[in-house]
Design a protein that fits this description.
The chain has 107 residues and is mainly beta. The chain has helices spanning 6-17, 69-72; strands at 3-4, 25-32, 38-45, 53-57, 60-64, 76-81, 86-91, 97-98, 104-106.
Length: 107
């Protein structure tokens, strides 16, 4: 199960509202890369892929590919907006190591 904080949900709502194309939901996943081996990906998408798992949080649909789902189980996504930093922050209990920027991890 993935958790989106209230701040993350509000930020995503703003991004969806300002999108130039229709948005069916947020695809969230994990791919190889980053300084720790795995990196998060988040994209607003127009349609769910055939094999995506779907999780509904409030009015938002999250689409997760089956390979990423175990690595994202228990993930909390927050949105930080301060004078020095703005963006999504990930707290993943499956991460055995994370880089300094918090955008990549190893499991």
């Amino acid at each position: 199960m993935i958790t989106l904080t209230e701040k993350a949900q509000k930020a995503l709502g703003r991004f969806i509202k300002n999108s130039e194309t229709p948005v069916a939901g947020l695809r969230i996943g994990v791919s190889g890369g980053g300084c720790s081996g795995l990196q998060y990906s988040m994209n607003l998408v127009e349609a769910k892929a055939a094999d995506d798992l779907e999780v509904n949080i409030g009015n938002l649909s999250l689409f997760i590919d089956p390979a990423s789902a175990p690595k994202l189980d228990g993930l909390t996504v927050d949105f930080i907006d301060t004078m020095t930093e703005s963006g999504f922050r990930f707290d993943n209990p499956n991460a055995t190591n994370s880089c300094g920027c918090g955008k990549s991890f190893s499991a």
